[in-house]
Amino acid sequence: MSSIVYNFTWETYCALLDEDEVRFYQTLEQGHIGDYICIKVRVRHELCVNPPQYPSLILPFDWVFYAQTMFVPYHEFHQNSLLYMQTYFSNAIIPYEVMYTCMPQVMTYIDNVRNSYPNPHYESPRIRVLPLVLDISVRMLFENHNDFVTNMAALVNTMGETQFVPATKDAIESLEKVKVEDCDTMKMCVICQVEFNIGMEVTKMPCDHLYHHECIVQWLETSHMCPMCRHPLPTSTSG
After folding, report:
1. Which of 11, 92, 145, 173 is deepest in the core (most CB within 10 A)?
2. Domain boundary among 163, 188, 206
3. 188: enclosing H helix or E strand
4. Number of domains making up the chain
């Protein structure tokens, strides 16, 4: 991608909690304690051609959108925000120059919101969660149409490999089957949004999240990560 020139913008803001998110945070209370940040990172790549013979001409051709949610302890993210970002997002999705530029200001915003009162957050005796959205827009300028086509294919493939890696068949078949009990925190399968019935047999991930067997199998055949917390199962490339 040596022929790419790009510019970028970003915006951070607090997200309003909906009922599904509240239920999600409630499921985390059994295994978590302390302050957490839940950041929905949304990256939009606008792909354009900028012919060198017409430097003021920018022709938009296409765009690619990528979204990922990070749920991380506040103090760990505060100390290692760049490391977390680089772990979740490759350079093809968020250029590292963008991370180095925007993250100090993002962390300043997070600290200001966290220390203000009132602020929009989820709070219980065990955990407190600050929900945020980070929107990043990257405009990628190519010198000619051929560079655009080649690099767009590489970008889409990289994003797909990052987000969609299936779990191994053995990992899926080894998942535990359990009965839904009245005291279970999870009341529905977040994949299909259908409530569980007491006594129903469901499938439990290693992170303790419950799903209908058919739902989670179909999900894991596409992505090896738990749809709620991103807990990973083994893949054919994980050794």
Report:
1. 92
2. 163
3. strand 188-189
4. 2
Asked which of 133, 163, 193 is the last residue of a domain, the reply is 163
Tokens of 15: 């997200």
Indicate if 61 and 109 belong to the same structural domain: yes
Beta bridge partners of 177: 203
pLDDT tens string 18-58 = 788 788 788 877 777 888 888 889 998 877 766 666 666 66
The DSSP string of 94-161 is: S-HHHHHHHHHHHHHHHHHHHHSSS---EE-SSEEEEEEEEEEEEEEEESSHHHHHHHHHHHHHHHHH
How does strand 176-179 pair with strand 201-204? antiparallel
Which residues constitute the domain of residue 65?
5-163
pLDDT tens digits, 130-153: 999 999 998 877 665 555 545 555
CA distance 86 to 195: 36
